[in-house]
Amino acid sequence: MQVLIIEDDAALGLFLQKGLTLEGHDVNWVGDGEAGLRQAQADQPDLIVLDLSLPRKDGMEVLEEMRGRMDGTAVLVLTGRSKVEERVRCLNLGADDCLLKPFSFHELTARCRALLRRREMYADPVLRHGSVEMNRMERTVRRSGQVVELTVKEFSLLEFLMQRRGRCCSRSELLREVWQMSPDAGTNVVDVYINYLRRKLGAALPKGEVSYQVIETVRGEGYQMGGVKKLGVGGCRYGLLDGYSQSALVQA
To answer: Are the CB atoms for 102 and 112 separated by under 8 Å?
Structure first.
């Protein structure tokens, strides 16, 4: 999942970024409270690992402001403040969990996984990307309102990609997570099923609507949810093609 680390200690921040990336997450790290709040609002990550003692804006302030705008994000607070009252205040402000420094990295990753599992239980069952809508409770997929009939494995592959929209998924990751196969398995099953999905999703688009490649190939890396076009030069500004969302996604 997408994780944001807000930690002013550069050594710890980089260590956590590397460790959580190796766990399979897409991780960003920032070093002060104001930058962290801006990044959190821009990215809307699944999980924020938040230190309390931050420059420019204290972690408590960040937490309080964040909770008024980002109810869907899990927050794990890191603190060296040993008083119980401080941790109680964090929880009352909206933190999902607190971890006292110094801590074990294994404990941190276990707590992260627990928070993400808890969030998924109450997450919106409907995933959307442009004109594609997936209802995970009903196990249905529609494109522009048209039903797309998928097999169990096709549905699982599309679900995995839609949950990680905004980032590239490698073939080895898809083999491991969707097929439970070794990343070293000599098979082209991922490419075959990507083509199945492209054909079915393409066939569901009504005539006259602007078409785009729902699943893009990232050369040498893997696949990602696509359907974006460049709106301007400088700053890499993008928007969805089919009219469902023209809001710009800006990558700094």
So the answer is: no
Q: Is 224 helix (H, G, I), strand (E, B) or coil?
A: strand
Mean predicted confidence (pLDDT) in 240-250? 35
- What separation in angstroms does the CA of 97 have from each of 31, 40, 203? 21, 18, 46
pTM, full prediction:
0.54
Q: How far is residue 187's CA from residue 35's CA, in Å, rounded to a whole number?
A: 43
Q: Is the pLDDT of residue 240 over 70?
A: no
**Tokens 């109450």, located at residue:** 122
pLDDT band at 228 (very low <50, low <70, confident <90, very high): very low
Q: Residue ranges of the domains in the chain?
A: 2-121, 126-226
Residue 7, CA distances (Å) to 28, 76, 81 in order: 11, 12, 15
Pairing of strands 132-135, 146-147: unpaired
Please give the CATH architecture assigned to the domain spanning 126-226: Orthogonal Bundle (1.10)
- Give Rg (Cα) of the chain: 20
Collapsed DSSP state (helix, strand, coil) of residue 162: helix
pLDDT at 127: 87
Enclosing H/E stretch for 227: none
If you average pLDDT over every residue of the chain, what do you get? Answer: 82
Q: Give the CATH superfamily of 2-121.
A: Response regulator (3.40.50.2300)
Token pair 């990550």 in the structure block, residue: 45
